[in-house]
Each structure stands twice: as structure tokens, then as C-alpha cells.
Amino acid sequence: MSTGSPSFGDRFAAPKELRLAGRFRVNKETPLPPLGGCPAFGASDILSPGANYVALAPLFPSAALQSYAELRHRALLPILAHDEQEGALWGLTSRPPGPPLSASLSLWSESQIIAGIVRPLAALLQYVQSKGLTLRSIRPDNIFIGPSAHQVTLGPLGLALPAFDQPLVFESLASAVCAPAARGQGSIADDVFSLGVLVLTLCLGELPLSHLSDEAILAQRFEAGTADAYMRGRVIHSGLRSLLQAMLSDDPSQRPAPDDLISMEPSKLFSVRLDKRSRSPLALGDVRVRTIRALAWHGARRPEHFIDLLRRHVIDAWLIQEIDQSALAQKIEQTSAALGPAGSSDPEAAVMTLAIHTLDPDAPLFSGGQWFWPDALPAMLAQEALQSVQTNAPRIILPMASQLLDQDVATRTTSNRIETQIFSLAQIARRSGRRGISRVTRLIYDTNPWQFCLSPLCAEQRFCSPLAVMQRLDEDKAAREVEAKPSTREGLLDQQLRAFFESVCARRNVSPPQSASASGVPPWLADIMLLELVQRRITTQPCQGISHFVLPAMLEELKAWRSHQVRKQHEENLKQAANLGDLHQMLAIIEDADTLRSDREAAHHAEEELTATAAELEWESHQQPDMERRDRETSEFIATLSGIGLALASCAIELCG
């Protein structure tokens, strides 16, 4: 079938050159080392020959990309432009001033660390904090050494998931226990911790605990505390030891603020309150814990043992006798009171989650067997969706997120930060007007206008433009219509496509149509109604592939018309609209309520006339014998009268004659 429209290959084949902001030429044939968590390519300015830049192809840009793009600081590579080209998002930044710090880790002096690392990055932290943002990317391979001695610059922000590429050793415990995608936006205190690890790395000339696995690093940090685990037995500049004790504190409230670091001087002292340690460890399965924070973490990993200790009131007794925390012990006792006897069907998972956050209010949420910050849920869902496209991996986050949004937050956690994040997500989900899995999928796009469509149809191309996604779908349906005649009684859109288009409509104040289950229409028709709205209000481009794909199903809908003449006319009009790729006109034809009502009224009148005629014929058939008898009698009477008349006439003639 020829639709007369340009093919997808014609419309989206890579142009001879890709330009950002109309002037920066991108050479995708010259890939560069990743930068800012993104694949990078060489770029040049056509208005300034010789000026070199870096083009970035982000996979999971931040929802706050626009705010990050406005940042300008001498210690930060700026986002000079961000633009949609070839249907995908691209960013542009300056070339790094030199090699990354990771290229040659070495020992720095105390004065070099303070002047070249602490003060400039603290000033950057102060600036970013004033904008309500965080860095979440302080690590050696994202910090570049400039031509001046020990002057550093951080890579661009906002083009990758926060802390996704951070080594575990650079993350505070509240972030390190989470999977990379589950770390969330974090806080400035998290950035101060990462900066502290960077300072320690330059003091040591290597990463702390570099010989251990991530699991072993976490175990040591919970056992001894991060600062002690990182610095024990190591030679540290005496003037920086107090600073590092504060920056590496596992209590975020004890870490210094950026203002304190900007005024940093050699041998400046910081006071830190150490976590209380038990005199005798608490046995939790095969481990022994001595701190409250370690108990919360190991308890989440060993739920059966943790619940057993809660039920037997061992934990609250230990808190009183060993940690001298009677108030906390009372809260734990109240929490454990919600547990029934062993083997009961009480909600142990909810009680365990509440107990964990009672023990450590700074901990992330523990649910579904994993730690995460709720504000990271959209990113977790997006990453899981992309992995399912690439590897057919099972979906775990999706049902967990759906359950989380349905629960009462107040019954699970004492953390205001977690409550606020879940409440915000729940508000967004409610505004979508969807239910079940659909509203959870919408979170991916409703929370981030820069997120590309994660449908298998276009995930590889990173299409975030509605026009690009629509044209890719149109090309796909055109190919399917040529190859076979699949049943359009199923939906035309997969879950990701539907959520993407609905979110695009909602962001532009265009109310998307109801779902198939809510409206009662067939799934394919509900999808066409959504696509028609996108075509008419947003993309305004013809869709011959889609229109011809659904043409057979729409022709079936015309059987509702009773008039053969009207139906034939609508069929012709429908085919013409399909050739034009006009979904609005096609829907108008099959949903022509006035014509359909007139057609049904005419059919009703015709049926009434047929009924009346049939009744009259039936009445006549019943009356026929009587009519024949009356006709016979009438004929006989007329014949008798005629005979009498003839006889009288004959007599009169004879008498007169």
C-alpha cells in the first residue's frame, strides 16, 4: 500500500550533520569518553572555527534540567545549550579544562587540598544550595584538573540520574545502601560527605577501602562508623583529621555546612558527637551489632530474626541496658506491640519498616526487600522499563510502587522526608486520573518532562519529542499493515506509549480521553481517540500508516448504519480520510451522531411501515373467505335481479306488441 507519505527512514534518517542551537555541529563519528554520566561526542561552533565543545546524549536527564542548565560557576562545566534534535534530547558543554582527577591519583598537600579542593567545591555547594539543587556527582572521574596548579572543575549537572555513577565509597550510608537508581536527589549533606571522601582520597593517594567489595565496605562502615572505617590505621594530615571526622559522619546533621568549608583554614577544628556503642553486642542471626544504625541495616537484611527479636522485646531491652536509650526503647516497644504471636498473619513487613525508621530516622525507605528514597521511584521505574526492553527482565519495581502509593504513609514511617516524598508522588498519581499500573507508569513521564519514551518501539532512539514518537509509531503501523492484517481489537499502543502521550497532553493542558476500561470502548478505539487528540492538538502531522492500520476496524464500525447508500458514502469518506492520514476526520465519520440518529430514525420509520403493511396483509388473509362468500351472494343477487328484469322486459314487449 502506498500512502504517499514520507517513510520513517526518510523523515528520521540521520542528517548530514546534527546541529544544536542552530550553530554547534555534532560529529557522532567521534565519540569521546563519557562526561557527566552521558555518552559524549565532539562538537564545534560553526560561527567560531577552532572552538571545540562536547555534545552529550543523556539517557535519564534530571527533571530539573532547566534549572541545572542555568547554573554558572567557575568550578562547574556549564550546560551551554540543550536541544531536541532527531527527536531526542542533546546537551552541549565546554571541553574539560584538563584530565580527570582519576587519571593520576596522587598525594596532595594539606594546603593544596584546602585551596584547590575544599574551598572551590564548597563555594560551588553554597551556590547550588542557594538554587535548591544538589550536586550528587563528586567523584574523581568527574572532577577535572585545570592548567593552573590543582584548580578543579566539576562535570556538568542535570544530565544523569543523581548519584547513579557514584562509587559506593563516595556515598553516605543513607544513599550507599540503595541501588544506584534508588538514591534520589539527596541533600547538600550528602554532597559534603562525597567531598569528604574526595579529600581523604587525596590524603591517601587512593580510594579508601579500595581492596574490599561493596558488601564488605558497607559491613565495616556499619560496624565501626564510616569515618573510623575509612581512616583507621591510615596516615592523615593532622590539620584535616578533625575536618574529615565531621565530613564523614554518618549523622548528616553533624557534617559541616558549605559556609563552614569556604572559610576552612589549616588545623581548623570541628566537633563531632560519636554514635553510642553497646558494651555487649546484640546477636541478629549470624551477625553481632553494636550500634543502632547497624541494627536497622542488618535487621532489614534479616527480617525473620529482626521480627523475632521485636516480638520477644529483646531489642527494647537491649536499647535500655546497653545503649541507654529508654525513650527510643519505649517507641520500639509500642511498635512491636502491633505484632501478633508467631505464625500470625499480621502485617510484619509494615511493622518492620516502622521499627527500622524508628531506630534510624535518617535511613531511606525499606520496602519490597530493598532500600530506596521515594523521590527516586520514577527513575527506578524508568530504568526497570528500559532494562525490560533490553533484556526482558522481570518487573519488580512496578508492583511495589503501586502498592506503596495505595498505603497509608503515616502507618509506616516516622521520617518526614519520606512522608513528604511519598505524598508528592501520590498527589501526582491522583492528578493523572488513572488507576492501578497505569497511574504508576504515568509517574515516569509526569514527574520528568525530559524523559524519553521507553516503549520498545523508540527507546533505542531516545525519542522524547511527541512528533518523533508519533512518526515512529506511524511507520511501524504502516509496515505491519503491509505485512499482515493483525487484529486491531487489541490496543494499538503499549503501556509506555500510552503513558507518554497522556502525559504530553496533560502537560499542555489537553485533557486525554478516558481509558478503554473507563469508557467502555474497544482498546483500539480508545488508543485512536488518544492519538487523534495528539495529532490534532500537538503534532499536526498526517498519520497514513496508523489510519490505514485501523481502517478495517473502522469499516466494521460502519455496519451500525442501516442505509446502504449512507454506509457506502461513509466508506468512501473513510478511505479518503485514511489516505490523508486524518485521524480526526476518520473518528468524526464513525462517530457522526447526527447522521447515525437520522439513519436509525429512517430505519425505524421503514420498519413501522413494513409492520403496518404486514398487519394489513395478514388481516386481509383472515377476511378473504367472508369476502368471497359475500361476493358470491352479491353476484347471485345481481344475477337474480338481472333475470327478473329481463323477464319483465320480455313481458312488456309482448304485451305492447
TrEMBL record:
InterPro entries: Kinase-like_dom_sf (IPR011009), Prot_kinase_dom (IPR000719), TF_kinase-domain_protein (IPR053083). Gene3D superfamilies: Transferase(Phosphotransferase) domain 1 (1.10.510.10). Pfam families: Pkinase. Transmembrane segments: none annotated. Residues 619-633 have a biased composition (Basic and acidic residues). One of its GO terms (molecular function) is protein kinase activity. Residues 613-633 are annotated as: Disordered. This is Uncharacterized protein. It comes from Kozakia baliensis.
